[in-house]
Structure formats: structure tokens, C-alpha cells
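To: structure desk
From: M.T.
Subject: fold request, one chain
Message: Could you run this one when you get a chance? Sequence is below, nothing fancy, just the single chain.
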Amino acid sequence: MIMAMCSCANTNSTVKEEQGAESPTVETPAVQAEYVKALTQEPGTVFYDLTLEKALEKAKNDGKYVLVDCHTKTCGPCRKMERETFPQEKLGKFINERFVPIMVDMDEGEGPAIAEKYNVQIFPTYLILLPNGAKEGEIIGTEFNIDDLIEMLKKIIHEKD
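Reply: Done. C-alpha cells follow.
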């Protein structure tokens, strides 16, 4: 487990969605007409609008890991990562080549079940999963330094420079 600073805990509270938090859904040929929710702008990280089950299936077919961004609507550091960190081209290139990234609100839909299964209690938490659903590692908290975040991910997936 890798930890970085964070200030959000699992409170299971709900509020109205932030203004502008949702981006339009776009279709790209690279995912063969699967819908992609580009919560960050290209050329940054592209998050797929998939259930965990579908993301695991895609990861198996593509030979990748799954990166699950576990967040809540009330988590300020989560929003900052979405606005400032994930849009970075260097990070997007790294993640898009190795992962099927998805964002899951831990207060809605399949989020509570995922939080329970993987013991997610602090937000943001980034789960790195094998295509069979086994947890390979996690990053808890925020990391705004792109190079440090890439190094953390490399360590989890056992990638050498």
C-alpha cells in the first residue's frame, strides 16, 4: 500500500453534484464504440464509463490493469485530482497505455459494494486491480506531482524503467 496526504474519509454523505463536474460523453474508435466519459481533457487520462465488471473484462481483453478512482462528490482533493492532475499529458499517456481507468462514486451505484469489497475508507483511493479483480495495490490520498504518481504506479505494477 502506498499512502499520500488526504483529507477525506468515508462519511457516506451526499450533496448535489458540483457545477461542471460532469463532462460530455464522447465516442472514440479506439474503444470500438464503447462510451468514454472524458472527465479530463485529452491528451490526459481518459476514464471509461464502465462498470467494474466491464472494466475488468476490457482489461483482460486489452492486457491491462484496471485503475479505479474511488471518490465521492464531497471530496475536495478528489475534484482537484480530476481538474489538475489527471489532465496532464505525461500522466495520461502512462495511465492510458497500461490501465483501463474508471471513476466510481463510493456513495452511489456499485460504489458502496466496491468500497466494502476492497476496504476503501479514505478518498481519494486509487485501486490497481488485475483483470481477475484481485487487488494488486492501492494509492491512498492525493499526489499532485506527476512524476511521483507515475513512480508509485510503476512500483505497484512492478514496472522497471
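Reply (cont.): Helices lie at 52-62, 76-85, 89-98, 111-117, 146-156. Let me know if you need anything else for the meeting.
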